[in-house]
UniProtKB/TrEMBL annotation, chains A, B, C, D:
It is an enzyme of class 2 (transferase). GO terms for molecular function: 3-deoxy-7-phosphoheptulonate synthase activity; aldehyde-lyase activity. The keyword DNA-binding does not apply. GO terms for biological process: aromatic amino acid family biosynthetic process. This is Phospho-2-dehydro-3-deoxyheptonate aldolase.
Amino acid sequence: MIIVLKPQPSPEQIQHVLERIEELGFTPHLSQGVSRTIIGVIGDERKLQATPLQAISGVEQVIPVLKPFKLASKEFRPDPSVFEVKGIRIGGGHLAVIAGPCAIEGEEIFFEIAEAVRAAGANVLRGGAFKPRTSPYSFQGLGEEGLKILKAAGDRFAMPTVTEVMDPRQIDLVCRYADILQIGARNMQNFDLLKEIGRTDKLVMLKRGMSATVKDLLMSAEYILSQGNHKVILCERGVRSFEDSTRNMMDLSAIPNAQGQSHLPIIADPSHATGRPDLIPAMARASIAAGADGVHVEVHTCPEQALSDGPQALLPEPFAALVDDLRRLAEVLGRTIDSCEGVAV
Amino acid sequence: MIIVLKPQPSPEQIQHVLERIEELGFTPHLSQGVSRTIIGVIGDERKLQATPLQAISGVEQVIPVLKPFKLASKEFRPDPSVFEVKGIRIGGGHLAVIAGPCAIEGEEIFFEIAEAVRAAGANVLRGGAFKPRTSPYSFQGLGEEGLKILKAAGDRFAMPTVTEVMDPRQIDLVCRYADILQIGARNMQNFDLLKEIGRTDKLVMLKRGMSATVKDLLMSAEYILSQGNHKVILCERGVRSFEDSTRNMMDLSAIPNAQGQSHLPIIADPSHATGRPDLIPAMARASIAAGADGVHVEVHTCPEQALSDGPQALLPEPFAALVDDLRRLAEVLGRTIDSCEGVAV
Amino acid sequence: MIIVLKPQPSPEQIQHVLERIEELGFTPHLSQGVSRTIIGVIGDERKLQATPLQAISGVEQVIPVLKPFKLASKEFRPDPSVFEVKGIRIGGGHLAVIAGPCAIEGEEIFFEIAEAVRAAGANVLRGGAFKPRTSPYSFQGLGEEGLKILKAAGDRFAMPTVTEVMDPRQIDLVCRYADILQIGARNMQNFDLLKEIGRTDKLVMLKRGMSATVKDLLMSAEYILSQGNHKVILCERGVRSFEDSTRNMMDLSAIPNAQGQSHLPIIADPSHATGRPDLIPAMARASIAAGADGVHVEVHTCPEQALSDGPQALLPEPFAALVDDLRRLAEVLGRTIDSCEGVAV
Amino acid sequence: MIIVLKPQPSPEQIQHVLERIEELGFTPHLSQGVSRTIIGVIGDERKLQATPLQAISGVEQVIPVLKPFKLASKEFRPDPSVFEVKGIRIGGGHLAVIAGPCAIEGEEIFFEIAEAVRAAGANVLRGGAFKPRTSPYSFQGLGEEGLKILKAAGDRFAMPTVTEVMDPRQIDLVCRYADILQIGARNMQNFDLLKEIGRTDKLVMLKRGMSATVKDLLMSAEYILSQGNHKVILCERGVRSFEDSTRNMMDLSAIPNAQGQSHLPIIADPSHATGRPDLIPAMARASIAAGADGVHVEVHTCPEQALSDGPQALLPEPFAALVDDLRRLAEVLGRTIDSCEGVAV
């Protein structure tokens, strides 16, 4: 940590800063330049994060040098984490192809979609039972009934499943039915939820918040890891911006950016990022080329009847064509996509 | 709702859209222009919000005409809502001056700060017992012990109190100790939390999310109102932006913007919006001039020892000078600031 | 300037950085910590700005300590600059009230508006002759004919005038007719234009770019100042954001923020910032309360016939009521608004 | 164009809007619903763009239905434009690989870099002679001397060249030396520059502004096209955002987004978009997978000695490896990269 003092600090101000740092158990290192005095602080600066050094009289700026996360960092674990669920590996060159409808709307339609995405090559099945909707008057999900359908479809098609948890009180319930717990963008900084999920041993898919930096995303992962659960998959799903022709702005640089700092896998969700089926295939391809450890795509057999986010769903046919493209790109790039085994579809 | 079709739609496409609208119980109204065909949909379009008309073949754009919120709107209640808590009115020309430390750190220091802000003219006391911190290694708040201190200070200084609730499981506990429940920016779209708080009868202070539009903020208020609790105060606290010299970008236009659409009071929080004590007084004054129904300011008697957000706290003396400024501005603008009664401080 | 090295740098890497700094004429100052090695660079770091120290092998981060502007800074000139034009002072507690239509559309209508804003208390007259329109098919301004009308109205009503210059080739022409040269938001980083205007001795009004930080704005002012013209008034006019209910997001904290770093006056333009007449009065009041050295408001006697930006213009009557509000606020805040003299209107 | 009236408009208000539309030569189409009255306007709405219908009393919203650009649109020219310069085709499946240093710093170093990028497979040579620098104290480019070096290197290595024009007064000069005129991000809405360049017959590379939407970018292209020059290549180079770990946020969805609306080629510039050599290769690969018609990459043989933007330059070796990756991706995706002919390098 570097502390920059205001121009012409008094000797008392300098002395007070030095004492304060020593009080906190760190070693200060003073450099007096012509225009600024700088104090380096030697020691584990994560312990200083809660200390408002900036509020000390005479201090102009406090500049952290180390990353604020530890367990999520590459320094802690240099090799990419690879997680396996129902035989499907995710991370370290193994790509997840997660697909399904936004919401689970009923057994028949969900099985129909599950069969279609499985046939197209998806290796994880998604579907929402608890839906975070911006309007209280919109469909809020089927709850436990939806979870039962999800589990039945996962069993039927031998696919691991992922579904969103919105409330700490739902965790036990969801853990009984799903293989992967999704934390949605709106809950990326719901810290109580992160902590509770960190106490389970389920694989977690953590979506980037709409105004979260990559560092914020990694800090939220750190919350989960700090509670003992180290199985976190990050997910880039676009951030809010001024561009009004797409639902969000997809920040694909977050993929290599996170991978350069963390061992955790990171996948990309072009469906929520763009909100536009005409852009999803190109952005899914781009995600894999950027190095993503998988994609997350919403698919529906009848988008115009979907109860949630229909307009952004792909139909099964273009989805199947897309998975073919992804396979060819993966091959060129030296990566693999595991297939679900054990049932003929 | 207006549905714009793609250029040269087929008669079947047009027919299908018309039928779908009628199926849903609405009356379509067709206008065929040279370059575009437009279908107006007559009826309460809020019921259409969950219906993905945009996914119908041949549809280019679906343009909502009505606002998606109802109970929060001025059309529902034309006059400004005024809420009263422990004799302090907020809304409709009555200004809240909410002050206190970011976190409750201990009884002695909290009473010292409470006394100072009360003496300076604050009429609501704030302090966090559950803290949403971006790092799991930062101070997370004193929990129930903090709530007890908050209540004791509110009683001692005859001030209504406000504190944050982060988790639905904390609501009962917090309701026992505090007068106003704060929903933090990171939880503005924690819909389960909104719904549960909507089932209490406590006054609520709902902070704008870091990437929420004014409409999003009003939709979150609508969640609370839709459950029966109509006592919501909105709070502008800055949004994320590219400007890196302030913590957030304070969007003061949200004040008149929300007031033009909603009867709910809206206050401003220059502390979190700017993160800089040198800018807080100017922005608090500007908030009142913009029409805010109050301000929310962090105050600490020793910012450099604060366990949370110390660098953005004002000292009691500049805070007292600021309240004097706000009183003079309020007078010029025809507004009033209620004082806490019943105890000599 | 502080150079942070990557973890475990080799002795050769450290040596190379130290030599490079000395080669450039600076004194390096090495601090080796447990987890990072830091090198402070003593000397005028502005000279280092063009040097890509970050590209040196082993360097993780280069952190500037000083502000990159000099002539615009408070360190260079601690007291606020006050500029006078036709007897109107701007800066240092003297407020500009700049008003007029977006574009000069014809002599009769411009004189009618000029008379109205003068009567309402405006002390600078604005009107565009060269218009930066996003569409090549929109009205582009009357050019020199417009400038003649502007000058005639300024003379008739004894008001200083301001108009936009978009192209270095227009500068001489515009200087012959107008008192203040406006640089529009879209040209804030048109560096050739800035340099040429810096070689004139005209007062300049420099608008903040749509994605410019306060530091960027001050760097653009520095361009003008570095050429010899020190008469620059800054103007906050909103920045691009995700909020879609206003034209831009007005960043009022830029006012005290710029004033804390620079001696240059800064005014606020709520017309372009909000694009909504229903929000302009509240935001103009807030601007003055935030400490702005003036406001810039578009006024039109018949907005629905305006050739440019009609929907955001105020009518003369609400504008006159607004100026009354501003006078009362200015009085409370200890500031003054000069009046145009010399003609009875 | 659709005009939405405020609730309960008076018959006079409705009448006035209808008359105004007819006066302007358009046919209004009235739909009166329960909660809103809507007026469709039939006719070429581009002519209405300068008319402030929103300022008419009783009007709540004016919603355009058609895109505001014409010559740049796919409706005007359904097939992708392909431009050829010195035998290199760009657009319609033919990829540009544009490379070179940020600034031309001298003959020897520029020839060295040119030779390296040509050998690596680049097919267009870039280098700046006029540099838009945020600081007036930074290196501003070699001017005409730089242009001469650029031309000599283009001739020597049989490569077409691209360089930035910042000022309308430089156009003739630059046209004498370079094959492609670059309009930088900061000048994307320098409308006088756009118009003047629109009167030349040179190929143009137009970079997206830092806060420009895709529509804004296409409108700026429309400016050039409207003057007669139809040879415009768009360039995505990142936009400003809150993410502070990259220089800009690269919006790759702009690639398929622009291609869906316009026949103009669009390339991607991961160097300026990320500012980080560690992210450039991944983002260049992603750009091609997203469908970009080429990439623009800064390369320098000695980044730490570069006079401009050194830290974001790739070294020749990783650049050559990247071009190999791009060739393999292009092959899988059915696209081609033309090679420069005529000289053995």
